[in-house]
């Protein structure tokens, strides 16, 4: 094991990421063996459809967790963004492009709201996110009058936005997702904002005493998360058609699981965008594999919960050894 860890390529890529890639490949092979109909492009494209919106949620919450915070409102806010923007499109006749911008704007507003309360009012992130989760559900229900919203199909003139997800069998969404992930990695690892966000998770008080405006940078993490949640809503409606009020909670744990599994510490101060991307693909493949084997999504919820516990425990053990 130590020889593998000391391998130059493994050290450059990261041992944890190498392990995750191996897990991803092994999972795909096992699902193909267990279910012959899992082999083929349709299953891969279906898993990718799930990975896109979940991936943007995970990228967003990575910034928040890096500060030592948490956001359990990302799923409901995604649905709120999709419902409000979709209702503007179908009921008020707004152009598709404007509706997509509204989706991002709704996510941004919740990001500003959460970030301001956490950073400037010192309200615990857990409380803020739980409140935002309920507010998002309420706003979506009131705005749409508790009705579901169906976005235009790809065959219609207004369905052009679905090409953001795929054109024929070409997974366009994959290229967009990877591009956004690279931008997020650059922000987190190569910019002053990213360094301060990570520093907040390591030792917030020390950063404050050094003269840094910690409130501004902490709020920025939630704002970035809000924008990515709004983008996630676009890819959700691009892959699926109908959005119903009152949903979204189930995606919180999956997004956080992908993030934590990828090497982002729940204690803050340590984050990996590349790890998050691989973690998201594992969650998406797990979801598709479970359905292919004939099980219900409830089994995925159980497995995802176990993944979160194991990943957090592994992080705790690693920190103890380092200390």
Describe this protein's structure.
The protein is globular. Helix content is 74%, strand content 1%. Helix 4 (41-66) crosses helix 12 and helix 9 (192-209) runs antiparallel to helix 10 (214-239). It has a two-stranded antiparallel ribbon. The chain has one domain (40-306): ABC transporter involved in vitamin B12 uptake, BtuC (Orthogonal Bundle), CATH 1.10.3470. It has 323 residues and is an all-alpha fold. The protein is built from 13 helices and 2 strands; from the N terminus they run H-H-H-H-H-H-H-E-H-H-H-E-H-H-H. It has helices spanning 2-6, 8-13, 15-34, 41-66, 74-90, 96-119, 125-144, 172-190, 192-209, 214-239, 250-261, 273-292, 297-322, and strands at residues 149-150, 242-243.
Characteristics of this structure?
323 residues; mainly alpha; ABC transporter involved in vitamin B12 uptake, BtuC; 2 strands; globular
Strand order in the largest sheet? 1-2
CA-based shape: globular
Number of helices: 13
**Oligomeric state:** single chain
Tell me the β content: under 5%
Radius of gyration: 20 Å
DSSP strand count: 2
Q: What can be said about the biggest beta sheet?
A: 2 strands, antiparallel
Cα end-to-end separation: 22 Å
What is the name of the CATH class?
Mainly Alpha
Whole-number tally of structural domains: 1
The overall pLDDT average reads 90
Supply the helix-strand structural class. mainly alpha
How much helical structure, as a percent, in the residues?
over 70%
Low-confidence stretches: none
């Amino acid at each position: 094991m130590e020889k593998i860890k000391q391998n130059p390529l493994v050290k450059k890529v990261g041992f944890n990421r190498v392990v995750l890639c191996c897990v991803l490949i092994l999972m795909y092979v096992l699902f193909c063996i267990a279910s012959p109909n899992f082999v083929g492009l349709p299953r891969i494209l279906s898993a990718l459809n799930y990975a896109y919106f979940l991936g943007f949620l995970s990228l967003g919450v990575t910034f928040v967790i890096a500060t030592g915070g948490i956001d359990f409102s990302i799923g409901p806010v995604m649905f709120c963004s999709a419902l409000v923007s979709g209702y503007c499109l179908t009921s008020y006749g707004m152009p598709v492009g404007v509706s997509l911008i509204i989706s991002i704007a709704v996510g941004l507003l919740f990001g500003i709201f959460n970030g301001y309360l956490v950073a400037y009012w010192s309200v615990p992130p857990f409380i803020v996110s739980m409140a935002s989760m309920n507010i998002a559900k309420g706003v979506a229900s009131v705005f749409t009058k508790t009705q579901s919203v169906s976005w235009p199909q790809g065959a219609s003139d207004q369905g052009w936005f679905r090409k953001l997800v795929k054109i024929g069998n070409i997974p366009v969404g994959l290229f967009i997702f990877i591009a956004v992930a690279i931008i997020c990695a650059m922000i987190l690892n190569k910019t002053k904002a990213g360094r301060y966000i990570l520093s907040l998770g390591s030792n917030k008080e020390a950063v404050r005493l050094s003269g840094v405006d910690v409130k501004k940078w902490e709020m920025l993490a939630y704002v970035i998360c809000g924008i990515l949640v709004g983008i996630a809503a676009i890819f959700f409606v691009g892959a699926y058609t109908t959005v119903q009020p009152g949903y979204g909670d189930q995606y919180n744990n999956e997004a956080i699981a992908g993030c934590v599994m990828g090497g982002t510490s729940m204690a803050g101060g340590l984050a990996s965008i590349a790890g998050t991307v691989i973690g998201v693909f594992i969650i998406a493949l797990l979801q598709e594999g479970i359905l292919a084997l004939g099980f219900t999504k409830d089994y995925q919820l159980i497995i995802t919960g176990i993944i979160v516990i194991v990943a957090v425990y592994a992080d705790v053990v690693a920190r103890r050894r380092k200390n």
